[in-house]
Amino acid sequence: MRRLARPPSGAEQGAFFTSDLTVNEFLLVREAGFRPLGLVLGSSVYHVGIQLGRWTKNQELTKLSQAMYHARELAMSRMEAEASALGADGIVGVRLDIEFREFGSDVAEFVAVGTAVKADGADPGPAGTWLNNKGRPFTSNLSGQDFWTLVRAGYAPVDLVMGSCVYHVAHQRFTQALGNAGRNIEIEPFTQALYDARGLAMSRMKAEGQALDAEGIVAVDLRQHAHRWGGHTTEFLAVGTAVRPLRDDHVIERPTLVLGVDG
Questions:
Q1: CB atoms within 10 A of CB 146
Q2: pLDDT under 50 in the chain at which residues?
Q3: Which PANTHER family match (predicted)?
Q4: Distance between CA atoms of 30 and 158, rounded to whole angstroms?
């Protein structure tokens, strides 16, 4: 908080900003009516516990799912607190990263980074604010170009929503593996396990968006992480930006095609 409150030498408070936006993104965010305030971040070094799964059973490892989700939530909430301290209306270009440190194979740092912005002429519509329905700055993983397009089309980002699922994929029995040797054949238990794990992650992301009264979720990114659990345990993470129309009667205008006749 001291870092955020102290302006650089020779700079007036509020006149200087830092940002991880590219030049094009910066200009488009300004064109959309928002002013960058500063680079904000949140970090959580988290011990991820151990949960054993049955060797021959497909199953979610719920304790690990909860740990991965909670650690990211801590990092996100601390990033949002920095943005609130700057008086921001939202955060654009949010990145969620995870790195396992040398503290141990089960200790990881979760980091959330983005650029805090303030509405500088952008019309929030009848709601009168760009804050989400939790009274906090909106968060978004949209690029500066996509953010500009969204706002110009009459939509507002509400929040970065996510769903996580850590899943144990059953091992094949030796006789099954031996019988499949040299054959082209679908391994149905593996297919079903990965299908179920992705479905759980996406349904949880969807539930977060619905709880925010969003119209939908854009820019969904479905990632798979093996981390350090071994080949048969994996995490699926679904991340996207929940959005809402600025006005209830909003209609997206279609571009008008103008034809000219020579002569």
A1: 19
A2: 8-11, 174-175, 177-178, 263
A3: UPF0145 PROTEIN SCO3412, UPF0145 PROTEIN YBJQ
A4: 19
Rounded to the nearest 10 degrees, what angle do helices 144-152 and 23-31 cross at? 20
Which tokens go with 211?
């709880």
Strand 107-119 to strand 216-225: parallel, antiparallel, or no bridges (unpaired)? unpaired
Structural tokens at position 105 = 């194979």
Which candidate, 216, 221, 223, places its Cα nearest to that of 240?
221
Cβ distance 201 to 65 under 8 Å?
Answer: no
pTM of the entire structure?
0.82
Residue 182 is predicted with a pLDDT of 62
HSE toward the beta carbon, residue 89, CA cutoff 13 A: 18
E strand or H helix that includes residue 78 = helix 62-85
The pLDDT score that the predictor gives to residue 51 is: 61
Domain edges within the chain: 15-245
Which residues, other chains included, contact 132 with Cβ-Cβ below 8 Å and sequence gap of 6+?
138, 158, 159, 212
- 13 to each of 4, 8, 10, 71, how far by Cα in Å? 10, 8, 10, 33
Q: For 101-119, b where at least 16 C-beta lie within 10 A, e where not — what string?
A: eeeeeeebbbbbbbbbbbb
Task: Tell me what pLDDT residue 97 has.
Answer: 92
Which H helix or E strand runs over 201? helix 188-211
Beta strands, E only, 19-154: 34-47, 59-60, 90-100, 107-119, 138-139
pLDDT of residue 9: 46
- pLDDT per residue over 197-224, tens digit each? 999 999 999 999 999 999 999 999 998 8
**Amino acid identity, residue 202?**
M
